[in-house]
Amino acid sequence: MTLDLFGDDCETNKELEALALGATLLRGLAAPQTAGLLLAIERVTERAPFRIMATRGGYRMSVAMTNCGAAGWVSDESGYRYDAVDPTTGQPWPPMPAAFLQLAAEAAERAGFGEFTPDACLLNRYEPGARLSLHQDKNERDMNAPIVSVSLGLPAVFLFGGARRAQRPRRVPLAHGDVVVWGGPARLFYHGVLALKDGEHRALGRSRVNLTFRRAL
Ligand code: SIN
Ligand code: FE2
Q1: How many angstroms separate the alpha carbon of residue 39 from the centre of ligand 2?
Q2: Which residues have their alpha-adjacent CB atom under 5 A from ion ligand 2?
Q3: pTM tops 0.90, yes or no
């Protein structure tokens, strides 16, 4: 009987892995909700389709992106910024779906951060070969809020480094439903994604979709 009482806790601890002080991997946290998340992604991308953005200097990114919420992350030849308007449609970004808000709040809480109400969600779509080089998320106004990152579709290798770019990053394999949260002392840590390996995912085909929730404004 006593064992039963602790059953839930043991389950939770097994799925919670520290990557650094302030950074936590919540394995499979989003798995029970993936059907609702995929539906919400469809709704968002009907109004704000995935597109390839340019970087400062005019290079094409390999990851296709879009956003929902009050602010969206956009990049073009002049640099990157948060913008309330989707430059492709001239309309505000679609609102943040309730399923997104709920998952982001739950993940932040489980990782030990207080109340988290993101106002921006960047959706990244990786096709085989697409990658994201090491970078910091540093354009957000409120650095007290964590970043919550949700992986869907094909597995990927997430790189999680430290405060300096030169620090060799950890390689963290991420699968459909895994969630990573970083904040506090890890908030500005460098991170990236290795080139996506080809494969076929039952729900997302030859792709991986990642949602990153931020408090940007
Ligand atoms: C990001 O850093 O914006 C996305 C990370 C990921 O795709 O896992
Ligand atoms: Fe990032």
Answers
A1: 24
A2: 137
A3: yes
